[in-house]
């Protein structure tokens, strides 16, 4: 059974495009470790040992408090302050090495996949004797981790904080307590690297290959000229390393974000401050709306990144970063193809209902183009789809079934 078959079985569904190339696992090893840990070993370790108390998309502070309390003494857990609505914000420090790395997740409250991967990392460090890479990271690095920087947004399942401020545009003004707290930790900890952990919508993919963007990265610019400063070069090397390690699994599913400079963004500010900063974006694996499969890849990407940061220099060519494609907004959740109106897409809106995230199909009458791809594709030949979607979906968030002109009933 090859890797793709394993993943398809796990998803219990058909993957409509080739996501994986054949993998010769023997070849892919983390380098520079005393005893090498293969990526396959790491993935298998994760499948068994991930933090099972965190699942799905709705991850908030009350879910993680118990897990933080139960961490063993080698984890230094500190309540660093409070959000606008007085929810606690914690940091977790672990490791004894000299490379200092600051990681924060859920700066956008509804981007929780990377938080799950961080708790998987805590499990890894609690069982560090099991794989040499975990031990090596702990002896080479000291990690300061903020699992949920925006606990109010996490509770309400919103991108913004309780004052409706996007914390990732508040790096200069620092108008919010969460922004002040991150800045204080940054100044106090003085990291050698920053990992800025986010999640991206289902809309991203690659027009050339028609594949979705499952993971994406950015070495933020440090100035308007997008210069490759020393710090930015080092960020590019980390991402190039992640790409090299994960591309056997996600050969056509790793992308870059646009590197336009915005000093109000946290990554750009830290990069301008000469701290190599890496933006991680957890994306959409087909049918994995809970993002449990993406979580595995985020975990692997963080471990690969840490492996590369264990030494302050890296021999990997930053040009490899520049060869990673920039992704585009070219995907929708469901694409009705070949209808009398052409190809028409609908997008799910994530809605918090009774402690659960619902995916509500929403139709916008905006034109979709022929370059649009769908995570799910439905043949709508001969159907007047726009009229049907307008009648059935606009203003009706509870509709989950559609009957097409030809009598087929589609579950959304
Ligand atoms: Zn984000």
Ions and ligands: zinc ion
For this structure, the quaternary state is single chain
Task: Determine Rg (CA atoms, Å).
Answer: 21 Å
Number of helices: 12
Look at the structure and give the CATH class of the largest domain: Alpha Beta
- Widest sheet: strand ordering: 1-2-4-3-5-10-8-9
Number of separate structural domains: 2
Give the ordered list of helices and strands.
Answer: HHHEEEHHEHHEEEEHEHEHHEEEEEHEE
| CATH architecture term of the largest domain | 3-Layer(aba) Sandwich
Task: Give me the CATH fold name of the largest domain.
Answer: Aminopeptidase
Contiguous low-pLDDT stretches (5 residues minimum) are 1-34
Quick one: biggest sheet? 8 strands, mixed
What shape does the CA trace take?
globular
What are the key terms here?
412 residues; alpha/beta; Aminopeptidase; 2 domains; eight-stranded mixed β-sheet; four-stranded mixed β-sheet; 12 helices; globular; binds zinc ion
Task: Provide structural commentary.
The chain has 412 residues and is of the alpha/beta class. It folds into two domains: 18-328, 3-Layer(aba) Sandwich (Aminopeptidase), CATH 3.40.630; 330-411, no CATH class. Helices cover 31% and strands 23% of the residues. The chain is built from twelve helices and 17 strands. The protein has helices spanning 3-11, 39-49, 61-69, 113-126, 132-140, 151-156, 177-189, 230-246, 266-272, 292-309, 319-322, 385-393; strands spanning 76-82, 88-94, 99-105, 141-146, 193-199, 204-206, 211-212, 215-218, 254-256, 277-282, 328-329, 331-339, 342-353, 356-362, 373-379, 401-403, 409-411. The strands form four sheets. It has an eight-stranded mixed sheet with strand order 1-2-4-3-5-10-8-9, with helices on both faces. The chain has a four-stranded mixed sheet with strand order 14-13-12-15, covered by helices on one side. A hairpin with a 5-residue loop joins strand 1 (76-82) and strand 2 (88-94). Helix 2 packs across helix 10. The protein is globular. The two termini are 31 Å apart. The protein binds zinc ion. Zinc ion is lined by residues 108, 111, 198.
């Amino acid at each position: 059974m090859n890797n793709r078959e394993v993943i398809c079985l796990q998803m219990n569904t058909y993957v409509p495009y080739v996501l994986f190339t054949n993998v010769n696992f023997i070849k892919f090893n983390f380098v520079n470790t005393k005893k090498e840990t293969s990526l396959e070993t790491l993935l298998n370790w994760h499948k068994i040992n991930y933090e099972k108390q965190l699942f799905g998309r709705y991850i908030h502070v009350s879910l993680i408090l118990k897990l933080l309390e139960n961490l063993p003494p080698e984890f230094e857990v500190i309540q660093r302050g409070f959000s606008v609505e007085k929810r606690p914000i914690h940091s977790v420090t672990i490791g004894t090495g000299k490379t200092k790395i600051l990681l924060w997740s859920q700066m956008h409250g509804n981007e929780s996949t990377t938080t799950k991967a961080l708790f998987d990392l805590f499990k890894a460090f609690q069982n560090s004797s099991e794989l040499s890479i975990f031990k090596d990271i702990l002896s080479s690095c000291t990690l300061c981790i903020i699992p949920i920087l925006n606990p109010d947004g996490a509770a309400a399942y919103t991108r913004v904080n309780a004052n409706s401020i996007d914390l990732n545009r508040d790096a200069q003004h620092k108008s919010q307590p969460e922004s002040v707290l991150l800045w204080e930790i940054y100044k106090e900890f003085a990291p050698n690297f920053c990992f800025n952990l986010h999640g991206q919508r289902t809309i991203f993919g690659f027009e050339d290959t028609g594949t979705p963007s499952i993971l994406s990265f950015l070495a933020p610019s440090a100035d308007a000229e997008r210069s490759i400063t020393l710090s930015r070069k080092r960020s590019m090397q980390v991402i190039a390393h992640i790409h090299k390690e994960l591309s056997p699994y996600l050969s056509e599913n790793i992308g870059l974000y646009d590197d336009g400079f915005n000093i109000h963004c946290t990554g750009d500010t830290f990069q301008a401050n000469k701290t190599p900063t890496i933006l991680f974006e957890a994306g959409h694996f087909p049918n994995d709306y809970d993002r449990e499969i993406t979580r595995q890849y985020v975990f692997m990407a963080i471990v690969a990144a840490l492996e590369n940061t264990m030494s302050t220099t890296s021999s990997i060519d930053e040009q490899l970063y520049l060869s990673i494609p920039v992704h585009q907004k070219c995907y929708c959740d469901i694409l009705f193809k070949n209808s009398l109106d052409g190809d028409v897409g609908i997008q799910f809106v994530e809605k918090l209902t009774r402690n659960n995230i619902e995916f509500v199909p929403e139709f916008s009458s905006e034109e979709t183009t022929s370059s649009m791809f769908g995570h799910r594709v439905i043949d709508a030949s001969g159907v007047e789809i726009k009229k049907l979607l307008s009648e059935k979906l606009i203003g009706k968030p509870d509709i989950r079934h559609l009957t097409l002109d030809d009598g087929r009933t589609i579950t959304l």
